[in-house]
C-alpha cells in the first residue's frame, strides 16, 4: 500500500536459528454463565533470539490474554484449552489424548512448581501495563527490587542491594542510591515504568513479555521508554514479545508483527512488509487510523466496534466491519496462510481476497453497506463439524457454489 516512512524499525534478526519460543494453535477460553468466551482462538507464532515480536490490535482482540497464556498466568474462569507452548525445547503447555479419549496434560509439560522455579522471572519476565498496580505502595522501590533479585538469583544481603542499585542506574534512574530508599508514590509514571523494566532485566531473562508498558504514559515519556528498551535490547540481546494497540510503537521497535482481531492472528509479517505491503483490510484500517509523520492526512476511524468473543461472526470475523467484504466472506472462515514472501520470510494473512484461498472472492457479490455487526450470527468453521450448517463451508465448497450460481445466471 506504499506506506513508506523513515521511522520504521530495521530488523537485524537471524531467522535461520531455532526459535526461542514457539506457540502453536494456542486456545484460551473463559467459561462464564452467559457462555464461552474464546479470547484466544488458535494463534501460532515464534520468537527468535534477540528479536522483538509485536502483538497488535484493538482492545478486546485477545492480546493480553495471549501474552499471559505464555506463562500460564490466566486467571479463573479462564483456562488454556488447547495448543502447544515450547520454550527452548521445554514444554510450557501441551495436551494429549488419554486412553479414555479425554485430553490431559502432556507428561513432559512443566509442573506449576517448575514454572515458578525455572521459568517465571528467571527465563521469561513480564513488564505490566500499570506500574502502580505492580509495585507495592507500602514498601520501598529498592526493597522490592532487592527482594525480587534474592528470590530469583543466588544473591543476598549487600550483594542483592548493590545489584538492585546498579539496575536502577542501568535503566536511567537518577541518584539510584537515594531513590533506592523511596516509595512508589515518590516516582513519576515514567520512572515507575523504568523500575518495572529494571525488575524484568534483573534476573537476566532471555525473553521479556511487555504488556502495553507505555499505554499510561504521555508521548514524550513513551518515547524515552522505547529508546531505553531499544538500547537495552541491543546490549543484552534480550528477546521481547511487545503487546500494544499503537502501530507507531510497532513501527519503531518491532522486528516482526502479529495483528490480532477477535482472538485470531489475521496477519503476520516482518515490520517493514506489514507497513509497505499490507495484506489484510484490518491492518490497513489500523494504519489509516494512526497519525503519519510523512503526510498531513485526516485520520480514518475504523467503522463499527469489535464484536464480543462469546458470539463471533460467521466466516471472516472482520467481515461486518470490512470495506472489502463480499458474501463469501460471511460464509467461509479463512485460515492464516502464506500469501507472499519477502527476503525469504513468509507474509501470512487470513483474507479470502488472496488467490491462495481459491474461494471465489472475485465472483462473489459485495455485502450491503448497512450490514450490522451481529447479523451474521455465531461463527462456525469447516473444522468444527462434519458437515451440515449453512455457515460451515470450506473455501473449495464456496468456490463450487459460486461457480454453480454463475452457471445458473448464464442460463
Poorly predicted ranges: 1-6, 373-411
Q: Could you name the CATH homologous superfamily of the domain at 124-205?
A: P-loop containing nucleotide triphosphate hydrolases
Write the H/E string, N to C: EEEHEEEEHEHHHHHEHEHEEHHHEEH
Number of DSSP E strands: 14
> Which secondary-structure class do the elements indicate?
alpha/beta
Radius of gyration: 23 Å
Range of helix content: 25-40%
Query: Going across the major beta sheet, what is the strand order?
Result: 8-9-10-3-11-12-14-13
Protein traits:
globular; four-stranded antiparallel beta sheet; 411 residues; Rossmann fold; alpha/beta; disordered N terminus
Protein topology:
Blueprint: E1 21-32, E2 35-47, E3 52-56, H1 63-69, E4 78-87, E5 90-93, E6 95-97, E7 103-105, H2 112-119, E8 124-127, H3 131-134, H4 141-152, H5 157-170, H6 176-179, H7 189-202, E9 207-211, H8 219-236, E10 239-244, H9 247-253, E11 256-261, E12 264-270, H10 271-276, H11 281-288, H12 327-331, E13 337-342, E14 345-349, H13 395-410
Parallel strand pairs: 3-10, 3-11, 8-9, 9-10
Antiparallel strand pairs: 1-2, 1-4, 4-5, 6-7, 11-12, 12-14, 13-14
Summarize the structure.
The protein has 411 residues and is α/β, with parallel strands linked by helices.
Description:
- The protein has 411 residues and is of the alpha/beta class.
- Among the domains are: 124-205, Rossmann fold (3-Layer(aba) Sandwich), CATH 3.40.50.300; 313-339 and 362-411, no CATH class.
- It has 13 helices and 14 strands.
- Helix 4 (141-152) runs parallel beside helix 7 (189-202).
- The radius of gyration is 23 Å and the shape is globular.
- The model is unreliable at 1-6 and 373-411 (pLDDT under 50).
Amino acid at each position: 500500500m506504499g506506506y513508506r516512512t523513515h521511522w520504521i524499525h530495521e530488523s537485524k534478526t537471524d531467522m535461520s536459528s531455532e526459535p526461542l519460543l514457539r506457540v502453536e494453535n494456542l486456545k484460551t477460553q473463559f467459561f462464564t454463565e452467559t457462555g464461552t468466551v474464546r479470547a484466544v482462538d488458535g494463534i501460532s507464532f515464534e520468537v527468535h533470539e534477540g528479536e522483538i515480536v509485536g502483538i497488535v490490535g484493538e482492545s478486546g482482540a485477545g492480546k493480553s490474554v495471549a501474552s499471559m497464556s505464555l506463562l500460564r498466568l490466566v486467571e479463573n474462569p479462564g483456562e488454556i484449552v488447547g495448543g502447544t507452548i515450547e520454550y527452548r525445547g521445554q514444554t510450557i503447555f501441551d495436551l494429549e489424548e488419554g486412553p479414555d479419549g479425554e485430553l490431559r496434560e502432556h507428561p513432559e509439560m512443566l509442573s506449576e512448581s517448575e514454572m515458578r522455579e525455572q521459568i517465571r522471572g528467571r527465563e521469561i519476565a513480564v513488564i505490566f501495563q500499570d506500574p502502580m498496580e505492580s509495585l507495592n505502595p507500602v514498601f520501598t522501590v529498592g526493597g522490592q527490587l532487592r527482594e525480587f533479585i534474592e528470590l530469583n538469583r543466588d544473591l543476598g544481603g549487600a550483594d542483592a542491594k548493590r545489584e538492585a542499585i546498579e539496575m536502577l542506574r542501568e535503566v536511567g534512574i537518577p541518584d539510584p542510591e537515594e531513590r533506592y530508599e523511596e516509595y512508589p508514590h515518590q516516582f513519576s509514571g515514567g520512572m515507575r515504568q523504568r523500575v518495572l523494566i529494571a525488575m524484568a532485566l534483573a534476573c537476566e531473562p532471555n525473553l521479556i513479555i511487555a504488556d502495553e508498558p507505555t499505554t499510561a504514559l504521555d508521548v514524550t515519556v513513551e518515547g524515552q521508554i522505547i529508546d531505553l528498551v531499544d538500547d537495552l535490547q541491543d546490549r543484552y540481546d534480550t528477546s521481547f514479545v511487545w503487546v500494544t494497540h499503537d502501530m507507531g510503537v510497532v513501527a519503531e521497535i518491532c522486528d516482526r508483527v502479529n495483528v490480532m482481531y477477535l482472538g485470531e492472528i489475521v496477519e503476520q509479517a516482518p515490520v517493514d512488509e506489514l507497513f509497505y505491503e499490507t495484506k489484510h483490510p484490518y491492518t490497513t484500517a489500523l494504519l489509516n487510523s494512526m497519525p503519519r509523520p510523512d503526510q498531513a492526512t485526516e485520520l480514518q476511524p475504523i467503522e463499527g466496534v469489535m464484536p464480543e468473543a462469546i458470539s463471533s461472526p460467521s466466516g471472516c470475523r472482520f467481515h461486518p466491519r470490512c470495506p472489502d467484504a463480499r458474501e463469501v466472506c460471511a460464509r467461509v472462515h479463512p485460515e492464516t496462510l502464506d500469501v507472499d514472501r519477502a527476503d525469504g520470510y513468509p507474509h501470512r494473512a487470513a483474507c479470502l481476497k488472496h488467490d491462495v484461498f481459491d474461494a471465489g472472492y472475485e465472483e462473489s457479490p459485495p455485502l450491503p453497506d448497512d450490514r450490522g455487526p451481529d447479523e451474521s450470527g455465531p461463527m462456525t468453521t469447516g473444522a468444527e463439524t462434519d458437515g451440515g450448517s449453512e455457515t460451515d463451508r470450506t473455501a473449495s465448497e464456496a468456490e463450487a457454489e459460486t461457480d454453480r450460481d454463475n452457471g445458473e445466471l448464464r442460463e
